[in-house]
Design goal:
- With 180 residues, this protein is α+β, with helices and mostly antiparallel strands.
- The chain has 2 domains: 6-107, no CATH class; 118-179, no CATH class.
- Helices cover 39% and strands 26% of the residues.
- It is built from 4 helices and 8 strands; from the N terminus they run H-E-E-E-E-H-E-H-H-E-E-E.
- The strands form 2 sheets. A 5-stranded antiparallel β-sheet has the order 1-2-3-4-5. The chain has a 3-stranded antiparallel β-sheet with strand order 6-8-7, with no helix packed on it.
- The N and C termini lie far apart (93 Å).
- The mean pLDDT is 91.
- The structure holds zinc ion.
- The site of zinc ion has 7 residues, from loops.
- Zinc ion is lined by residues 157, 159-160, 168, 170-171, 175.
């Protein structure tokens, strides 16, 4: 059975996922971007539930980096030396892709941060506007007599915003205020 270990290819900028039937090569650190999918074993179903594993003598190319290459090379048997040669040959491409990926990630991080900051700012502005509105409402009614409790012309208490469950002195816990 052909074997390949990550330490044999990582100096060329490649990483490796290993499953019971395949190995998948990707630019190191970008696990879901498979450049080479190789089969090393296959299963045969016996009696419906029992499985027999057959190990291949060579790696078999399942998919390549793109469709055109996959069509050209799919099913081809390749040796471990070939795979290492592939990694050497593509070292520059892998390194470039890793750099590009890191830039993409940095940019994504920056964008996420900018969105968070904008949200936070918006929240603070809303809070400020609300406080200002409350202050204005209190100022307008400062010299009038305040009546607490519900009546047809009553408005929600500007201090507790009508949350009568909160202990509020301004509306005496009723949630309603009107002015005479
Ligand atoms: Zn109140």
């Amino acid at each position: 059975m052909p074997t390949l270990y990550e330490h044999e290819i990582e100096s060329y900028g490649f990483g490796l996922n290993y499953t019971s039937s395949n190995i998948q090569l990707h630019p190191k650190g970008i696990n879901n971007e498979v450049w080479l999918d190789l089969q090393h074993s296959f299963y045969t179903q016996l009696f419906g539930y029992k499985k027999e594993i057959t190990q291949l003598k060579y790696f078999k190319i399942i998919s390549h980096r793109n469709q055109a290459y996959t069509q050209k090379y799919k099913g081809r048997n390749v040796s471990k030396e070939w795979v290492i040669g592939y990694c050497k040959h593509n070292q520059k491409n892998a390194d470039n892709r890793i750099k590009e990926y890191e830039e993409e990630e940095k940019l994504k991080h920056k964008q996420r941060k900018a969105i968070q900051e904008a949200r936070q700012l918006h929240k603070e502005q809303e809070q400020k506007a609300l406080q200002q509105a409350e202050a204005n409402a209190l100022e307008i009614h400062k010299h009038k007599e305040k009546i607490t409790g519900y009546r047809p012309d009553a408005a929600l208490c500007p201090k507790c915003r009508g949350d009568a469950l909160r202990h509020c002195h301004y509306c005496e816990g009723t949630g309603w205020v009107s002015y005479a």
